[in-house]
Every structure is written in structure tokens, then in C-alpha cells.
Amino acid sequence: MDTRTHASTCESNVYDKSISDICPYMYVHVFVIGIVNDQFYQLQARKDAARPDYVVRAITMYCVNVQKLFSQLSLCIDQNAEVNFHQVSLLARQLQTRSSGIGAEHVRLACAEILRACDEQNKE
Known about the structure:
It comes from Liquidambar formosana (Formosan gum). The chain has helices at residues 3-16, 19-22, 24-32, 38-45, 54-76, 85-102, 105-119. With 124 residues, it is mainly alpha-helical. The radius of gyration is 18 Å and the shape is elongated. Residues 1-16 have low confidence and may be disordered.
């Protein structure tokens, strides 16, 4: 088997499995400690034979999108600049919405804290 065929087969095998199949302990642990919530497991349930890579693609798109939002937030909260609380609030709401949709509970909770700080005009 050449390397390309093997890589393709490995990718296919990963897409055909759910996270609970790959690492059942981690699957439960991330829920118990609050990293993810029920929405994450509902996302897992949407995977079917017609779209075996649905979950992987959804998580990948989430990561790409939130990386951009985190970068924008970092620029807005630069320690040397005046904080634009309105802009930070808008970005935090976008991040919170995306995180809620995929079940990223820790990120969602962090966004709630950022929004609270924006309401209080608290840079710290």
C-alpha cells in the first residue's frame, strides 16, 4: 500500500468513528469536568452514514472561526490601547454563539465573563 492510500484510509477510519469510539474515557471526562455540554453530544448524534465526517468538519470549522475571533479579541483588548468595550462585546457574543452551538462550555462561560466585564467597563 502506498503512503497516499494509507493516509486516505486512515482519514476515512477517523471520520467513520465517533469521539466516543476513539477514546471513550475522554468522551465522558470532558463532559464531567465541564469542557463540553449536552450540545456537543447532540452534535455527535447528527453523524450518519451519508455524512460520516460531519462532526470532524463541524469541529474544524468551529476552530477556524474561533481562532479568528480570538485574534480579533486580543487586538481589541491590547493592554496599551483604549479598550473598545462595544467591539469586544460584539466579538464575545459571536464567540459565545458559536461555542454554544458546538457545546464548547468552557469557552461559552469565558465569554459570559467577558460580556460581564464589558457591561462594567472593566478592563481587568
